[in-house]
Design a protein that fits this description.
Rossmann fold, DNA Cyclobutane Dipyrimidine Photolyase, subunit A, domain 3, five-stranded parallel sheet, single chain, 3 domains, 485 residues, 5 strands, 23 helices, Serine Threonine Protein Phosphatase 5, Tetratricopeptide repeat
Length: 485
């Protein structure tokens, strides 16, 4: 009998507890479940799905070198997973399946159903904690509740991680290579999932951009992580909000797919800078905080299942009346709002499947506050386009901007996108990159061109007045929150 590692959002060899456990007794099988209809239901972006394809193409030979034959199961939805996995285990004579736990409500239901089905055939499903720094449920308040404010959560995490570093972050070296036994043959991905199908919805130009911008081999990811944590991380706090500067790690697609783990990121940041998690230098401290924000949202997703159903965390915001303005939403989606920084950011998203984090906050707050359009629509649009689309992080970010979630921005704190643009892209370098029609404008005009300049450059007037729409949003939230008390 042999073991099976069920790969999900953990498409890596290093720091993979489920894979390590499966290999304890020798060569093992791996499996990845292809579920196109489920991906459609979950609004997974074509950029993200094609990224999975490229990652799996590289993962198959990497696993073969350590004696693991990767198999592919094709189903429509997760409802078919328990029986399909049970049949595969019986065919391969597998008695134990190892997986890294996922924390969304529907993922947990899928795993519970699979556990019961496998047990009927005497097969164990063993879960491991490979997708978070600390298991959700182990970081709670004194009242045994999940933290809803980030700062105390991060402090509690740092204390726990300091004690756990030695045991959890040391065994990160490559597993020893061993020959793949003769009977264990890996599947050919293209037979089960042709690239033409994986790339559906992407133009040739988009696919070229995505492949060039986001290489999907573990060696590329390792090099990117090492390069960032050696020197650029020290400038992270100073540069992270400047979209025209390469000041961020750009590791989010790799974290979302599991090509790299959060533990590996933390380990490299601390090791390469010879610092302690509770006494880090400024840049390292700020970047570690971003890793902990990701952790925060994962724990919230586990603790509040309603987030998986796209419910607001704050029940008192349930009755807010959002505006139904399809044309304004369409303009936001297409980068035609007449607000240069918003339009440039949306064009970056559609082209690269990714958006700078500062810009994500700007465009989300513009949609939910200035346009007063339901945050669910923005959340869905992002998931449909993001290569790093992750339910916990995407939902958490949108609810932060919409003032409906954990530790969210107060409803009266509303970014002015023009002021944000002037502050974080003062010379309009980022705007000119994505809105070349405005490239001739000077530094003062580019953030908010005059009506005459807009007309001459064929750039639209702003679809909303920023001052009056801000007042409208504040009054709407104030009125509703008072009435819900």
């Amino acid at each position: 009998m042999t073991a099976l590692c069920w790969f999900r959002t953990d498409l890596r060899i290093l720091d993979n507890p489920a894979l390590s456990a499966a290999l304890q007794s020798g060569p093992a099988y791996g499996v990845f479940v292809l579920a196109p209809e489920q991906w459609r239901i979950h609004q997974d972006a074509p950029a993200k799905i094609h990224f999975w394809w490229r990652t799996l193409e590289n993962l198959v030979p990497e696993l073969e070198r350590i004696g693991v034959a990767l198999k592919f199961l094709r189903v429509k939805t997760w409802q078919e997973v328990p029986d399909a996995l049970s049949n595969l285990c019986q065919t391969l004579q597998v008695d134990t399946v190892h997986c890294n736990r996922e924390h969304g409500l529907y993922e947990r239901r899928r795993d519970q159903s699979t556990y019961k089905t496998l047990a009927l055939s005497g097969i164990d499903l063993v879960g491991h904690d490979g997708n978070t720094l600390l298991p959700p449920g182990t970081v709670k308040t004194g009242n045994d509740d999940y933290y809803r404010v980030f700062t105390p959560f991060s402090k509690a995490c740092r204390t726990k991680l300091k004690a756990a570093l030695a045991t959890h972050l040391t065994p990160l070296s490559h597993l020893p290579a061993q020959a793949l036994p003769e009977p264990m043959v890996a599947d050919v991905l293209s037979i089960h999932w042709p690239e033409s199908e994986a790339a559906m919805g992407l133009s040739d130009e988009q696919r070229k951009n995505l492949t060039q911008w986001w290489p999907a081999h573990s060696e590329d990811v390792s090099a990117r992580l090492d390069a960032f944590t050696q020197e650029p991380i020290n400038q992270y706090k100073a540069l992270r909000d400047l979209p025209a500067q390469p000041g961020t790690s750009q590791l989010s697609p790799y974290l979302a797919s599991g090509l790299v783990s959060a533990r590996m990121c933390l380990y490299k940041a601390l090791k390469n800078n010879s610092v302690d998690i509770e006494k880090t230098v400024e840049g390292v401290h700020t970047w570690v905080n971003e890793i902990l924000w990701r952790e925060f949202y994962q724990h919230l997703l586990h603790g509040y299942p309603k987030l998986s159903m796209h419910k607001p965390l704050r029940d008192d915001t349930l009755g807010i009346v959002w505006r139904d303005e399809p044309e304004e939403f369409k303009a936001w989606c297409e980068g035609k709002t007449g607000i240069p920084i918003v339009d440039a950011a949306m064009r970056q998203l559609v082209s690269l499947g990714w958006m700078h984090n500062r810009l994500r906050m700007i465009v989300a707050m513009f949609l939910t506050k200035n346009l007063l359009i339901d945050w669910h629509k923005g959340e869905t649009f992002f998931m449909q386009h993001l290569i790093d689309g992750d339910l916990a992080a995407n939902n958490g970010g949108w609810q932060w901007s919409a003032s409906t979630g954990a530790d969210s921005a107060p409803y009266f704190r509303i970014f002015n996108p023009v002021s944000q643009s002037a502050k974080f892209d003062p010379e309009g370098v980022f705007i000119k990159q994505w809105l070349p029609e405005l490239a001739s404008l000077d530094n003062a005009s580019i953030h908010d061109p005059s009506p005459l300049q807009r007309q001459s450059l064929n750039y639209p007037l702003a679809i909303v007045d920023l001052k009056s729409s801000r007042v409208r949003a504040i009054e709407t939230f104030k009125k509703h929150l008072k009435s819900s008390l």
